[in-house]
Design goal:
By secondary structure, the protein is mainly β. Helices cover 0% and strands 50% of the residues. A hairpin with a 6-residue loop joins strand 3 and strand 4.
Length: 298
């Protein structure tokens, strides 16, 4: 008989549980330059962090230079493709890119673009590779979000009947000590009333099974995150060549929202099932990639 375990949810304002093993709160880091830039990560970066950034204006654009450094305790093998994308947003409608909630103004996005694409080389501990790119200003009063996206092919499409368009995509980030510990057993999505102007709302529920031979101990942090992204060439539309159902295409993160966050109240044994859920907000009239991420551990 499949066992079910629930999350002991904690008050977000009182608890700091990072999405990834870094010093960033939910992986957003302000650049600390005279210009309003923020960094985000998408996908499993295996301890590869952005360091030593230099952002300078050049005419109607910014010159961006930074290092991707292996801050982990082991060699990261090369070969993983990555993209650096840029989203410019109106400060009045999206004043705080560190906020893990949808922007107050659903039309706050001023522009999106892909800045650079490449493949990570093999990096020993402490080694780095340098990336250079140029970003458009878009607007003098814009906030700028830079996202380093690591493409591992690990996102899976959630299957529903009827299938929403664009699709929902799921990624499960397990602890490095227990890779692939959880596997999707069941997923549902249904429309619910929205409390946010300009957004539709859907209740998403997931059942995840412990398919490892190990116990996930009580107290293990679990987060459920929704990421809303737009095409790196602009919003997806019927005439765009970019497929919103393909997360391998260049895309630019717009916002993330925490659907649930807490710790396991009881140990999750092999074969047992964990149920998670939350309300996803989708911008009305804008086609966005809907990415659901489950983060297990730190």
């Amino acid at each position: 008989m499949t066992l079910k375990r629930t999350l002991l949810l904690l008050v977000l304002a009182l608890v700091h549980l990072p999405l990834v093993a870094s010093a960033n709160s939910l992986d957003t880091d302000e650049c600390g330059t005279p210009y309003p830039f923020w960094w985000k990560y998408d996908g499993p970066h295996h301890g590869i962090l952005v360091k030593d950034w230099n952002i300078q204006p050049e005419g109607d654009r910014f010159r961006i230079r930074f290092a991707l450094i292996n801050a982990s305790a082991e060699t990261v093998q090369g070969g993983m493709p990555f993209t650096v994308s840029h989203t410019a947003v109106d400060r009045a409608g999206y004043g705080d890119p560190t906020a893990q909630v949808p922007p107050a103004n659903v039309r706050a996005v001023l522009g999106t673009e892909a800045l650079a694409q490449g493949t990570l080389p093999t990096l020993r501990v402490g080694e780095s590779t340098t990336v250079e790119a140029y970003a458009q200003r878009f607007h003098a009063d814009a906030n700028h979000i830079l996202t380093v996206i690591f493409h591992d092919g690990g996102q899976i499409a959630l299957s529903f009947d009827p299938q929403p368009q664009p699709w929902y995509w799921l990624r499960i980030l397990s602890p490095s000590s227990l890779p692939g510990a959880l596997e999707l057993s069941r997923a549902t999505v249904e429309p619910v009333s929205s409390s946010l102007e300009g957004y539709k709302a859907n209740a998403v529920r997931l059942a995840l099974r412990n398919v490892s031979g190990h116990v996930l101990e009580a107290g293990t942090p679990i987060s459920l995150i929704h990421g809303s992204s737009g095409s790196a060439g602009g919003y997806w539309g019927p005439d765009d060549v970019v497929d919103p159902n393909d997360p391998g295409n260049p895309y630019a993160n717009i916002f993330r929202e925490v659907l649930s966050q807490g710790v396991l109240a009881e140990a999750l044994y092999p074969g047992a099932t964990l149920e998670l859920g939350g309300v996803v907000h989708v911008p009305e009239g804008i086609t966005t990639l809907k990415q659901i991420t489950v983060v297990v551990g730190e």
